[in-house]
Amino acid sequence: MNRRLLAAGIAVAAVSLVACSSGMYAESPVVTIDATSPAANPQVGLTIIPGDERDDPLVISGLTADGTPISTADSAGDVVVVNAWASWCPPCREELPLLHLAAETFAPDGVAFLGLNSLDDPIAAASLLATSPYRSINDEDGAILQTIPGVPPSSLPSTVILDRKGRVAVRVIGPVREGQLEGVLALLIDEPA
């Protein structure tokens, strides 16, 4: 069994889907992903996409909560980690310290982080945004999240990592686990641009 399938299988066994609806999003199918029991969905977990299988570059752009335009294209040539989250999502809040630490640790290596505050009210998310070492795009209706290839619509948390060419190289559907980002970021940092 190759490493990619083994890693994906282990990650799938470590997470589960828990249906959740919250306030103004009760009419839309919102899924938060928890890590307490075996997964019911094979899309959940870590997927590493080999370089020769990656699609065309992906640009994710929008406005921050204060209306400032921001885009993954602003970090062209860097490895870019995009994390979709919401303030009402417990697994999203639980993974934030790991993401913040990785953002600070890998910044000198040409790794940029960008949040995607999805299906959330910017005012409700303000305290989390204020403590983040990186900025987030406001995706209140979840429309941007739905455009990310391989990410099930409305799945929170979800993380994609773009290689230096802007192509999706890694997907994490569900919460990022301790030690998970470091290994894949080290691989992507060392890839030729």
How many helix segments? 4
> CATH class, please?
Alpha Beta
Distance between the termini: 29 Å
How would you sum up the major sheet? 6 strands, mixed
In round numbers, the mean pLDDT is 82
Give the strand order of the largest sheet, numbering strands 1, 2, ... along the chain.
Answer: 3-11-10-6-7-8
Rg result: 15 Å
In CATH, the topology is named Glutaredoxin
General shape: globular
Q: How many domain regions?
A: 1
The CATH architecture would be 3-Layer(aba) Sandwich
The structural class is alpha/beta
- Unreliable spans are 1-42
Query: How many runs of DSSP E, i.e. beta strands?
Result: 11
What's the name of the CATH homologous superfamily? Answer: Glutaredoxin
Strand content: 25-35%
What does the model show?
With 193 residues, this protein is of the alpha/beta class. The radius of gyration is 15 Å and the shape is globular. The longest helix is centred in the middle third of the chain and has 17 residues. The protein has one domain: Glutaredoxin, CATH 3.40.30.10. Strand 4 and strand 5 form a beta hairpin.
